[in-house]
Amino acid sequence: MKKLFVWIALILFLGACNDSSQRDPVVFSEPLPESEGEQLYLDMKCPTCHGHQGSGDGFLSAGLQPKPTDFSSAEIMGEIPDAQLKEAIKNGKGKGMPRFAGFTDHQLEALVRYIRSLSQPPSN
Ligand code: HEC
For residue 78, what are the contacts with CB-CB under 8 A and spacing of at least 6? Predict the structure, then answer.
């Protein structure tokens, strides 16, 4: 009799586990990337130095001199042509900016577009 009770309890328990209404909803801790450039920026860990807003305050930036370029400043970014941005990503710059030689031209352009968007007001 005791065994039967254990079996019934187990079956009820497994049944409850299978109840989809009890499952937690999927929660993303951060908004998903909205463009290929943003995806690459996140995947390649650019924010560790450049920061998520591009202002150059990533946690690795503390020890860097010069500091990472402030992508959030329209004034600073206005002075820098696209070709220089691509060149820096592809071949590195100064002591702090590593080279990322593996990007295709298409990926470099997507990154430049995203970096530029950080100093522009949202279009909507
Ligand atoms: C280890 C830290 C670090 C990482 C990781 C890093 N950067 Fe940089 N980046 C820097 C620093 C420091 C500079 C400024 C170099 C200088 O001016 O001498 C810089 C400069 C740049 C520039 C040039 C801007 C200018 O002033 O001409 C671009 C573009 C850039 N980074 C893009 C990226 C992208 C895209 C990634 C990710 C794929 C990335 N960086 C990852 C540290 C980093």
Answer: none
Provide the number of structural domains found in the chain. 1
Print pLDDT tens along the chain (124 aa). 678 777 777 676 666 666 656 678 887 777 788 999 999 999 999 999 999 999 999 999 999 999 999 999 999 999 999 999 999 999 999 999 999 999 999 999 999 999 999 999 876 6
- Residue 27 is assigned to a structural domain of this protein: no
Integer CA distances (angstroms), 68 to 33, 75, 95, 115, in order: 22, 15, 10, 13
Question: How is residue 64 written in tokens?
Answer: 């860097």
Please report, for the domain that includes residue 83, its CATH number.
1.10.760.10
Q: Which atom of ligand 1 is nearest to the CA of 85?
A: 29
CA of 67 to the centre of ligand 1 (A): 9
Domain that holds residue 67: 33-117
Closest-CA residue, ligand 1 atom 13, reads 68
pTM: 0.81
